[in-house]
């Protein structure tokens, strides 16, 4: 019997951000098609901005098919703990599960390291990490764990802040770090979009060097990394 994988992203108006999501889903579909065992049907869905919505996709699936909601989100938060759980409960699907989000992950710490080097970072340069932000404590703690992983990879202290209006904000974190040479900001966003633009505007205002987000169009290696994180999340359900 096939297994339905509903790869669920946040959604964005950014053409580059949409291209990123599409690349991840297509690559994931290809990787799962090569697996031995059950047949996987991969669907795309969104919790905001774009269509189809998660509710719409689940409504179109057979109620007896095994279904897994796969969050293409970096951390736990309101979307994973409330929106996706509500959608699963209301779907009428008898065998439905929600996989863990993509992060925190050592693979993403390595990817952020790569992005920092692209931006000109050298060991010893100050690094802060910017996350989107969550109103939930568990989401904030997940970003803190990802920051600790990045600190381990860089072998130096890394502090973090949120792009949303949640304390500590990335503005506060960057301001506290100023005065000790160049500041590099590790961009803990999946792709380009509203928050990425907001972060880069801050960098221009503060003179900080903002790295690119985890995935940028045309970078297959970064897509492969995110897909491995997705496969790791699915593996936790086996």
> How is the largest sheet built, in terms of strand order?
2-1-3-4
Q: In which range does the helix fraction lie?
A: 40-55%
- DSSP helical segment count: 8
Helix/strand-derived class? alpha/beta
Give me the Rg, rounded.
Answer: 18 Å
> Poorly predicted ranges (pLDDT <50, ≥5 residues)?
none
Dominant shape: elongated
Count of strand segments: 8
Output mean pLDDT.
Answer: 96
What distance separates the N and C termini? Answer: 16 Å
Main sheet summary:
4 strands, parallel
Quick structural overview:
The protein has helices at 15-33, 54-59, 78-90, 106-119, 137-154, 170-177, 194-206, 220-235, and strands at residues 3-9, 40-46, 66-71, 96-98, 126-131, 159-162, 183-188, 209-210. The chain is α/β, with parallel strands linked by helices and 238 residues long.
Structure commentary:
The two termini are 16 Å apart. The protein contains eight helices and eight strands. It has 238 residues and is of the alpha/beta class. The strands form two sheets. It has a four-stranded parallel sheet, with helices on both faces. A four-stranded parallel sheet has the order 6-5-7-8, sandwiched between helices. Helices cover 45% and strands 17% of the residues.
Fill in the keyword field for this structure.
238 residues, alpha/beta, 4-stranded parallel β-sheet, 8 helices, 45% helix
Tell me the layout of helices and strands:
Elements: E1 3-9, H1 15-33, E2 40-46, H2 54-59, E3 66-71, H3 78-90, E4 96-98, H4 106-119, E5 126-131, H5 137-154, E6 159-162, H6 170-177, E7 183-188, H7 194-206, E8 209-210, H8 220-235
Parallel strand pairs: 1-2, 1-3, 3-4, 5-6, 5-7, 7-8
Helix pairs in contact: 1-8, 4-5
